[in-house]
From TrEMBL:
Residues passing through the membrane, by range: 7-27, 81-99, 106-125, 145-170, 182-200, 206-224, 236-254
Keyword 4Fe-4S in record: no
Superkingdom per UniProt: Bacteria
Name of the protein described by the UniProt record: Probable membrane transporter protein
Family: Belongs to the 4-toluene sulfonate uptake permease (TSUP) (TC 2.A.102) family.
Length: 255
């Protein structure tokens, strides 16, 4: 699929992509900016949803490399963490390719409200006490379900998947927010790659706007990794909560 892009639209995609790259790296919900930007350009919801994955994919590639460079990407339990995420992502992408777009808003809104309530009522779920030992996936059956559901949600909607992954990684496996963010980006990178392949096969991706958007998200992710390394845990926790509330508002206002 192809489309003509004006200079204004290039700027819109770059700016929203940059902001989304920062938001997604530190918390989640950046697609609440980029999806409307793509739809303003005249894309149907399913095409915008698919095209958005190009920016998400490359943004997470930059983020993963950045966290690894700073020694914040845990690799001991990577494969067991990725397996349920990949399975869920494939199922979610397959469902999104064929499901009516009317299902997207209820799922997005319900998920954002649930995440906001979790962070408000039990903030320790996403912000474990410093020094708390991490758990292994093989010893934590709940993590399989959490990561699988996060993958499905990410494959289906994408917007806000960072919140769901953080709850799974910090809540069940007890990673601190910096390391959970690094693993979140690795999981998102893998199942987004699967989503991009499926959406591309269905001809739903507009590559030019997707790559322009990706330039912004990649730069935003590069900046945000440095911010995450330096930020206090309390600051990251509040930023995460605020972004979750913004995600709820965006879901309620979306068409």
């Amino acid at each position: 699929m192809n489309m003509d892009i004006s200079l204004f639209q290039v700027g819109l995609l770059m700016v929203t992509g940059f902001l989304a790259g920062i938001i997604n790296t530190l918390a989640g919900g950046g697609s609440n900016l980029t999806l409307p930007a793509l739809m303003v350009m005249g894309m149907p919801a399913e095409v915008a949803n698919a095209t958005n994955r190009v920016g998400v994919l490359l943004q997470n590639l930059v983020g993963v490399r950045g966290f690894k460079k700073h020694g914040k990407l845990e690799t001991d339990d990577t494969v067991p963490i990725l397996i349920p995420s990949i399975i869920g992502g494939l199922l979610g992408a397959a469902a999104a390719a064929y499901a009516p777009s009317i299902w997207i808003k209820p799922l997005l809104l319900g998920t954002m409200l649930a995440m906001a309530l979790v962070m408000l009522i039990r903030p320790s779920v996403v912000a474990p006490e410093p020094g708390m030992p991490c758990r292994k996936v093989k010893n934590t059956p709940a993590s399989w379900w959490g990561l699988g559901l996060a993958g499905f949600y990410g494959g289906f909607v994408q917007a806000g998947v960072g919140f769901v992954l953080l709850v799974a990684l910090a809540g069940t496996l007890r990673y601190d927010l910096v390391r959970a963010n690094a693993l979140k980006m690795l999981c998102t990178l893998v199942f987004t790659l699967a989503s991009v392949i499926l959406f591309a096969a269905e001809g739903l991706i507009l590559w030019l706007p997707g790559l322009i958007l990706a330039l912004g998200t990649m730069f935003g992710a590069h900046i945000a990794v440095k911010m995450a390394i330096k930020a206090k845990p309390e600051t990251l926790k509040w930023f995460l909560f605020i972004m979750t509330l913004c995600g709820c508002i965006a879901a309620m206002l979306s068409d």
